[in-house]
Design brief:
The chain is α+β, with helices and mostly antiparallel strands. Helices cover 31% and strands 31% of the residues. Bound molecules: nickel (II) ion.
Length: 173
């Protein structure tokens, strides 16, 4: 396993990759699993609770997440070619952040419940409902697969302010 570099929006080349639409995975192979292992290690090291493959520069439809709370056992989750089959009409606000937009937290509204279909670590088809933080996180990560960042849900002013802040912080580092 290896920790990979996480692409961030302050870098123009990184941003161009983050804006790409990710392609479906043809089959879940050992190579896919090795990538997911790297993604998980990278996410834990960051630390974060969700990561899409495109965030480490691989525009494939793969996501890893771990929503375990502090003190709980790690509970890694893997999603290949995830789809939202249904979503609730009810929206819920949540203050989101993103490893590709470091240290920026803004409130985004999303459907409060979704029904998912995806392939797991072993390539097995899974269907399940997600609500609460799970619903927020999976929708945020699935946006990455479409080249959409959480700041794209904000007003233009707020989005530009967020990017400026990340750029300033990167320059100061
Ligand atoms: Ni993100």
């Amino acid at each position: 396993m290896a920790i990979r570099r996480i692409l961030t929006v302050d870098n123009a080349a990184d941003l161009a990759v983050l804006k790409q639409k990710s392609v479906p995975v043809e089959a879940v192979t050992d190579e896919t699993r090795a990538l997911m292992d790297d993604m998980l290690e990278t996410m834990y090291a960051a630390p974060g609770i969700g990561l899409a493959a495109v965030q480490i520069g691989v525009p494939e439809r793969i996501i890893v997440m771990d929503l375990a709370r502090e003190g709980e056992e790690p509970a890694p989750r893997y999603y290949v070619n995830p789809e939202i089959v249904r979503k609730n009409d009810q929206l819920a606000p949540y203050e989101e952040g993103c490893l590709s937009v470091p240290d920026i937290y803004e409130t985004v509204e999303r459907p409060d419940q979704v029904h998912l279909r995806y392939l797991d670590y072993n390539g097995k088809l899974v269907e399940e409902d997600a609500d609460g933080l799970y619903a927020v996180c999976i929708q945020h990560e699935m946006d990455h697969l479409e080249g959409v960042l959480f700041i794209d849900h904000l007003s233009r002013l707020k989005r530009e302010r967020a990017i400026t802040k990340v750029k300033k912080a990167a320059r100061a580092a």
